[in-house]
Design goal:
- With 352 residues, this protein is an alpha/beta fold.
- It contains eleven helices and 13 strands.
- The strands form three sheets. The chain has a six-stranded mixed beta sheet with strand order 10-9-8-11-13-12, sandwiched between helices. Strands 3-2-1-4-5 form a five-stranded antiparallel beta sheet.
- The chain starts with 7 loop residues before the first helix and ends with a helix.
């Protein structure tokens, strides 16, 4: 335990958390916030506390719920262990990489999500829509941050394309190297605010962190052939913002696998959802059915075919990732049997 002191409000403590405390817990326990997660320990900070402690376990010695960066725990100073985890205000999660079904927790209790892209070849509407769906599902305020404005002849074109993705979406265009250019982000970076930072590698996230925090985080040059920088950040971590808040950096996630974000996708693609409700049939697949409002909008030029394609892709991906392992295996077995029957039929016909 160190002598460094953080006031709870400084760490992002809000009435949402204080109302969860029982009367007898006020005197016996101390709220602390998780600022880093390691293999066998977590680092927490609070009033007079900045230390590594064991992960939270239940009465049977099991990890009830893995802690993630941003969590609030009630810390027992006598036993030097977490007593319980408070309910989360927001939680970012995704299906972990690979073929398994494990869910990876990304960050908890975030107020604002800075979705970072750049005014060059890295700008990708489909990727922005994924992050927006993630933000809307968790009810976290999204802000699109477009970097490298100084390297583009028409940065306003990128800003216009991003702003069209969601009504009222805030889009900030800046040169991440200069504080005066990044000043437009300060309203979300004040005392007690928690901001998460996401975006693919090479869009200037580390440079932006340097500017907002005053820290010197190593960056690497951009490769001229594809305008993408090499990956710099390797772990989620908290950074203190000069404006008083906290910034949570995440490694560049080139493959964001959406899971259980139906409401978020519906928000981002509200125009298509509203059209689908006007279709003649409730189970319309929006392909060739008569009275399909979606196809009518496509034919009338009021709906972009590429946007519809991206919506279909995200809906299919979300449904696939949210399916249970048993359902997925059953589907795979059914397709396997179907393939074998097709091969057997093919061989029989050849023999005939």
């Amino acid at each position: 335990m160190t002598s460094h002191t953080y006031a709870l409000a400084e760490l992002g403590w809000k009435p949402f958390f204080s109302t969860q405390l029982e009367t007898d817990e006020y005197a016996a326990l101390t709220p602390v916030r998780v600022i880093a997660v390691h293999r066998n320990s977590i680092q927490v900070a609070g009033q007079g506390i900045d230390m590594l402690i064991p992960p939270y376990v239940d009465a049977d010695g099991h990890d009830e719920s893995p802690s993630t960066v941003g969590d609030w725990l009630l810390f027992d100073r006598t036993r030097l262990r977490p007593h319980r985890r408070l309910e989360r205000m927001s939680l970012f999660k995704r299906r972990a990489a690979g073929t398994g079904r494990a869910i990876q927790l990304i960050a908890a209790n975030v107020d604002t999500l800075f979705i970072v892209s750049s005014c060059n070849q890295d700008f990708n509407v489909a990727r922005l829509e994924r992050y927006l769906a993630l933000a809307r599902e968790t009810q976290v305020t999204p802000v699109v941050v477009l970097t490298k404005a100084d390297l583009s002849e028409a940065p306003q074109n990128y800003a216009h394309a991003a702003a069209k993705l969601l009504p009222g979406l805030v889009v900030e265009v800046l040169d991440a190297r200069h504080p005066e250019s990044a000043a437009g982000l300060l309203p979300w970076c004040g005392m007690g605010d928690t901001v998460a930072l996401v975006g693919s590698s090479g869009v200037g996230k580390s440079t932006l962190i340097n500017t907002l925090t005053g820290d010197d985080i190593a960056t690497r040059d951009i490769r001229a052939d594809d305008a993408k920088g090499r990956h710099t950040t390797t772990a989620r971590s908290f950074h203190r913002l000069q404006a008083g808040g906290w910034l949570l950096d995440t490694p560049g996630m080139r493959e964001l696998r959406l899971t259980d974000v139906d409401a978020g996708i519906a928000d981002v693609f509200a125009d298509i959802v509203e059209l689908a409700q006007e279709c003649r049939f409730g189970d319309c697949s929006h392909e060739t059915e008569p009275g399909c409002a979606v196809q009518a909008a496509l034919g009338g030029g009021t709906l972009d075919a590429e946007r519809l394609k991206r919506w279909r892709k995200l809906m299919a991906e979300n449904a696939y990732n949210a399916a249970t392992l048993a359902q997925r295996r059953a589907t795979e077995r059914a397709f396997s049997r179907m393939g074998k029957r097709a091969q057997e039929l093919k061989h029989r016909r050849r023999e005939e």
